């Protein structure tokens, strides 16, 4: 199922050069399953043609308020009613000013004024225009009226200046739409902390002990929780992944760092999901200078790290749900159930490293969810789907 299936998105395109980026944005949203309608101002139609949008969306692109050959009766009202979300992008200073004052003198501003759905505006203009107190006042007024303002990016502007005022790339605009429409907001108001990735335990300034964790499973859980409306903190060891948008990321390196970050986050957490592969041991001493090789062999003394999961479960506040992960190569279920019981967890997601398609680095996972009461075996799924099923199970257990 596509993330935006059954959703109607209206794109309001106004007359800025960044209008060209909206072709790709429209295409992305269509690919995600949305019904996309584009409404343009006359000025926008000088930068990019309605035909471009009509070809990409398979819908009539409206510019003129009085167009008669339109599929809807009283077009502005029908479109406003059909929309699940309106994204005005690029939003020029002129159109922002009109919207902030309820002016409805063309099709776009009329549709927006008539709509009760979520409205997003992505300002795009020269830095001086953006920073002008008039524009800033208009943006503040729009926020007061319930608009969400998409932060403009900084960089080289079309006028040659370097500064803030760029329309963010289509992928980022699509993420804003996804965040509002992709899922039912079953975790609205819930604070979720996810740990992900490996830890690195330093031996000296150039070497460390670590493991193969890629962070993919934890990142997928953080993203899914965010889409369901949760306030997500992602405590991440060193990984090569783009963090999901709209998630607070706390980068850490060692098991000690991760422990401190979890301790800090815990009082503000309702659900803790420990997908990280935390080192159980670290070098007992960290050499201050690079260790030089010797003729003889070398033994490294290791000491135990803190068991973060056990600590969290022992120090839980009422209502905290604690989910651990378990990766085993033998006696998988027995060892995992023992962990669940010994660490007093609400759930443990079990990976058998020997199962094809499960485990480190790959984009799929075969997870079994163990709880004190039972067991749910999930099939081989993408890590995104596995994350969704894990959160379904947690939500069911919390009610
Ligand atoms: N974990 C943790 N702190 C550690 C080690 C592990 O919080 N120092 C967490 C992991 O994030 C994971 C769970 O414990 O959620 C299970 O980790 P695993 O290494 O499989 O289990 P251990 O309890 O460490 O048992 P063993 O090493 O004996 O398999």
Which regions have little confidence, pLDDT < 50, spanning 5+ residues? none
Number of strands: 19
Q: DSSP helix count? A: 14
Bound molecules: cytidine-5'-triphosphate
Task: Give the end-to-end Cα distance, rounded to a whole number of Å.
Answer: 26 Å
For the biggest β-sheet, the strand order reads 12-11-8-13-16-17-18-19
* Percent range of helical residues: 25-40%
Q: Sheet bearing the most strands, described?
A: 8 strands, mixed
The average pLDDT score comes to: 95
Structural class: alpha/beta
Percent range for β-strand residues: 15-25%
Provide keyphrases for this structure.
399 residues, alpha/beta, eight-stranded mixed beta sheet, 14 helices, 33% helix
What does this 3D model show about the protein?
- It is elongated and about 80 Å long.
- It has an eight-stranded mixed β-sheet, with helices on both faces. Strands 2-1-3-4-5 form a five-stranded parallel β-sheet, with helices on both faces.
- The protein is of the alpha/beta class.
- Helices cover 33% and strands 25% of the residues.
- It has helices at residues 21-31, 44-47, 50-57, 75-82, 93-100, 107-114, 127-131, 133-144, 170-181, 216-227, 255-265, 308-314, 332-342, 383-398, and strands spanning 8-13, 35-40, 85-91, 118-123, 148-149, 153-156, 162-166, 191-196, 201-204, 207-209, 231-236, 248-251, 271-274, 281-283, 302-304, 321-328, 347-352, 364-370, 375-382.
- The two termini are 26 Å apart.
- The chain contains 14 helices and 19 strands.
- α1 packs parallel to α9 (170-181).
- The structure holds cytidine-5'-triphosphate.
- Residues 195, 255, 274, 276, 278, 280, 305, 307-309, 324-327, 339 line the site of cytidine-5'-triphosphate (CTP).
